[in-house]
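Form P-L/3: holo structure prediction, ligand adenosine-5'-diphosphate.
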Amino acid sequence: MLDIIQLLPDHVANQIAAGEVVQRPASVVKELLENAIDASADQISLVIKDAGKTLIQVIDNGVGMSPTDARLCFERHATSKIKKAEDLFNLDTKGFRGEALASIAAIAHVALKTKNETTEMGTEIIIEGSKVVSQDVVVATKGTTISVKNLFFNIPARRNFLKSNPVETRHIIDEFHRVALAHPSIAFKMVHNGSDTFNLPASNVRQRIVNIFGSKTNEKLVPVSEHTDIVSAEGFIVKPSFAKKSRGEQFFFVNDRFIKSSYLHHAVQSAFEGLIKSDTHPGYFLYLKVDPKAIDINIHPTKTEIKFEEEHAIYAVLRATLKHSLGQFSVAPVLDFNKDAGFDTPYAYASKTPVAPTIEVDRSFNPFQTESKLNAGSSSKRNTFKEDTTEHWESLYSGLQSDTDVVVPKGIVEQDPEAQELFESDAALPQKVTFQIQHKYIVTTIKSGILVIHQNGAHQRILYEDFLKSMTLNEAVSQQLLFPLVFTFTKPQLVILENFKEQLTHSGFQFSEWNEDQVGVKGIPAGISESIVEEIFHQLISDFENQVPDSGFSQNDWLAKSLARSMAIKTGTVLETEAQEHLIHQLFACKEPSVSPDNKLVLMTMNATDFDKKFM
Ligand code: ADP
Ligand code: MG
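OUTPUT (holo model):
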């Protein structure tokens, strides 16, 4: 009989193994940073080019390697960290599988330069797709520099599978944060495309968190501290009032290793129950220490999931500890017996008899009057529904004749044969009627029956098409602000916003400054109100964190959707009849009026036949 089984050559086996360890540039970042930590470095720099697709480099001042070790470290199952199986249950290093460098070298061009304390000269090794290209003796200082270029050069399918640069950068920053938060006593630096993204000096945990997430974070943190026989928990939780819609800041570290655990996350969530809104997420930075013998880290190749021997007990301790911290935090003001002087009756009034206040109403006061005068100059096609008044409703159309305006001018309904058909007044229908139901739907009579429109969905559709067009054609109309608005963001937030800077400019935002933690805005898209600009940016960031957009094209699309979502008139908004009609007109000027940007139904008709069926 013919034997058909054979052993795979090493480079093939390595490529297969690499699939498990290296999913994307961020996986390489994690492995290299962890190796540097295991080498006892106290200064680690990460250099990235093109989201890691061109270069990932980690420079450390750790123990370095001898020339022989430098050669051996690229072999599979080559590790200095464990010697026997029992060591697996007493780990104090990040790595132990001896797989990372072998895997990375199998699918990239790698250059290693290293020197340890005992050798005079350093070693440089170039290895490409598991093949050693050269080994040289070089001048070097103690420590190791590993450069990984052209990741997945020999696996085109994997390379093509990589996401856009903003997405891959986001993953890299996430890994960088995790490692940097786990080791606050090590100084970290990250340089992306030549500019410093993070520069984190050695510090304590609180300072590290603040250095990463911005100075405003400091006041949001509530300390956590508990020590029991099975687990000790230290760290911080974010005050409930700062809970966010996105799951941004949730970190568990077990024995200095970032881990994911939905079970422990549940413990945190249940401690926050009743203190935060159901659609928000608690923020936490929790550092657990358990006996290494009581956990198994080796259940997943990337070592981000672990098994605890005493899972239930840890859950209970964690939940109780957090409840205690939260309790201390929210109970504290009540137990503060320093009375608030503001509530005392002023001395001069103490003997006077109180008089019931009278109410005076100016019945002729019209809150919209001055507003509409103020707005008269900047007629807009976007959401000024609240400000619109009956008298000025016609003015909503003024200026739309200019070439730069996107919305088809007044009368579009008559020009569109189908819509014309829809709206043509029937002899039996003396007057077109438009009204709102539950401040959510707009109902209007049409020739054949009625038309029901979801006001929020409809407005999203209008804004979405509008923004998409402005972004593609770069022809948005900006309204200049007298006083620029300045917003403070955390670094990660700024990194996200930066991705959209160009498109935001195309959609009408003008920036006066853009520095370390602040963004100044001097112009905003015509028609939007200054007061919602900050909310728009925050919504954009949280949308991004929740569902990261992909390629360049869909990034425009995604941004337009996000902007439309945050700016569209909300369900519950009262609309004047004219505003209702205006919305209908604009909707029918859209390319796809029947669905929202998220493909939800926006309008529906019911005609006499539908009614007939109901009344049979
Ligand atoms: P592991 O970390 O699981 O041991 P790796 O493939 O990541 O496996 O690394 C193999 C070995 O190479 C390590 O055990 C270590 O001895 C050595 N090594 C890797 N990176 C460094 C570094 N930055 N400094 C010193 N030694 C290193
Ligand atoms: Mg390693």
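COMMENT: Confidence is low (pLDDT under 50) at residues 331-351, 370-421, 424-430.
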